[in-house]
User: Fold Aspartokinase from Roseicyclus persicicus.
Amino acid sequence: MPILVMKFGGTSVATLDRIRRAAKRVGREVANGYDVIVIVSAMAGETNKLVGFVEETSPLYDAREYDAVVSSGENVTAGLMALTLQEMDVPARSWQGWQVPLITTSAHAAARIEEIPTANILKKFEEGMKVAVIAGFQGISREGRITTLGRGGSDTSAVAFAAAFGAERCDIYTDVDGVYTTDPRITSKARKLDRIAFEEMLELASLGAKVLQTRSVELAMRYNVKLRVLSSFEEMSDEAGTLVCAEEDIVESNVVAGVAYSRDEAKLTLTQVADRPGIAAAIFGPLAEAGVNVDMIVQNISEGGTTDMTFSCPVNEVKRAEKAMADAKAAGLVDFGRLVADTDVCKVSIVGIGMRSHAGVAAKMFQTLRDEGINIKVITTSEIKVSVLVDRKYLELAVQALHDAFGLDRAA
Ligand code: ASP
Ligand code: MG
Assistant:
């Protein structure tokens, strides 16, 4: 039997009623002749609640226990989904990550998948089981501790299962009906894309378009997994959703495919840093060790042998960054004047593979922001993207203006 992977996000399993609706979809695919691997997230809001419990209990928590707690939301939905399918006379059972076992690295809260043995589950399919329900987001390290794959990690579970089992497709059911040119909550002109290239999706995902976890897109690209994003609230149809695919499979597209944003960013500047070889290593080494996800980095012109070093990171990592820098300074590893943190910024980016062959895209972005009176604080670019940091209060305005400027409300 061909295998299909179906992943249901938190909103699609938020209530027993929704679990029933999701199960009906699974039942229809079984009737279509598939053996189905279902990956479930925790009920909407559940993981946030669990993270909150952990943080309240222990601000500098042991990541192994964090994983033990936050992985539990998926255990509930996996069991409930299997029970719901059984009630519909569809032979199904659930697996928690350790039962598969889905083996990961021991990087707790951000573990990477190393191995998914298929024999157990395939044997059950041979024996007549129709649906394997897997608790997403979780695995087990070689040390035998429960791990999680980072927030949004059940997308990655889904793609990894699709790759391991050679699934015909990996359908990601979520609360939106596909990938949009930007967040439809910010502008009603946002348009659903029929197709998007892996590279573009990768940028959009890493820039905070929360539809898919970045890692899941990387995996899909590497193993060429046909990935479809679709809504669990709409009627099924073959054309539904957005197909994330190779660049060659896209005929026409706009120069800019989408506008992404990330709301909770912080800009940190170290003043009067000695301008000498090794200084960047001395700063970003300790930050990396402290688990700070540094994003943009800008070093300014040097005057009198010192320079300012500016970088950005998620706003909830500022405390870690400050501590890491204070410790490094105290240990004599790095010398600087002050650390100035601006915690009221956001990042807005335009993304598109068309930028490779079009000049003037960045200039147009800057002109558009100028016309709205928005000050740009940091700029970075890559081959297919331009990102800026601006004051958080301008987030909506910047996204709307750029969406208009690049004509994203119209198909190419
Ligand atoms: N429940 C987990 C989270 O919210 C994993 C997921 O839903 O993908 O991050
Ligand atoms: Mg998600």
In short: The domain at 259-406 is CATH 3.30.2130.10 (VC0802-like). The first strand starts at residue 3 and ends at 8.
